[in-house]
Design brief:
244 residues, alpha+beta, 2 domains, 30% helix, Aminoglycoside phosphotransferase domain-containing protein, Aminoglycoside_PTrfase
């Protein structure tokens, strides 16, 4: 299991060096048949990896820049929790113009994935108005007052159309920008939800009016507080969610 399965991608494959990746994964640069790629090893289920890799293939076919899964020698997109993907060049966004391009890319993602099925085991923010658990979220581990604040933020999203959201696009480490391309990486938090969760960006790059920005910012802060509970980051994010 794990890294010993890397040989499923062929005989000419070797790990090069560790990369910064999602907290749930071990991510390395890899040399595959002489080219640099990225490999990620984790404990996600086959159903979860199927959802993620099929999503990335769909987005690539539609022309949205993403890390593209590379099949094993026998055509599988993952093996024993291991996924190999194309290496993406670029730098994190820094300017307001960069972030506006990120917003445009996110809106393309949202348009391309309307009607997409939910990631296995996940719940949307509005689902959590009526249930307490979903993959990384366990509302029953949070203080009742914190749950009430989060749910009040998410209640403002009820009735809106859903799609795939990246889940953590405001983290500049999850975006790579070049002169002609914006690529979202680290799809660990992607799931089906209301697109507002992706649009509380630096500089209000999505161009939301005051009310829409408040809805998005409150919902996103509540989501990250719930997903990360109870580390220091989650406590800081919860502090941004208004009391009820």
């Amino acid at each position: 299991m794990g890294w010993e399965s890397l040989d499923r991608w062929g005989d000419d494959v070797v790990r090069v060096e560790p990369l910064v990746g999602g907290s749930a994964n071990d991510v390395w640069s890899v040399r595959l048949d002489g080219r640099l790629v990225v490999a990620r090893s984790g404990s996600r289920s086959d159903a979860d990896l199927h959802w993620e890799t099929e999503l990335l293939r769909h987005l690539d076919r539609e022309g949205l820049p993403v890390p593209v899964p590379i099949p094993t020698s026998d055509g599988r997109l993952f093996a024993d929790g291991l996924v190999v993907m194309t290496y993406v060049e670029g730098e994190p966004p820094t300017t307001e113009s960069d972030w506006r391009r990120v917003a445009d890319t996110l809106r393309r993602l949202h348009t391309l994935t309307q009607g997409w099925p939910q990631r296995p085991g996940w719940r949307s923010s509005t689902d959590l108005l009526h249930t307490t658990t979903g993959t990384k979220v366990a509302l029953d581990a949070m203080p009742p007052e914190a749950v009430a604040r989060c749910r009040a933020a998410w209640a403002r999203l009820v009735g809106r159309q859903t799609c795939v959201v990246h889940g953590n696009p405001a983290n500049p480490g999850n975006v790579l920008v070049t002169a002609d391309r914006v690529t979202m990486i680290d799809w660990d938090e992607a799931h089906v939800d209301v697109p507002d969760l992706d649009l509380a960006l630096p500089h209000n790059a999505a161009g939301l009016d005051d009310d829409a920005h408040d809805v998005a910012a409150q919902a996103a802060a509540a989501w990250e507080a719930a997903v990360c509970w109870k580390d220091e980051y989650a406590v800081r994010r919860l502090a941004e969610v208004r009391a009820v």
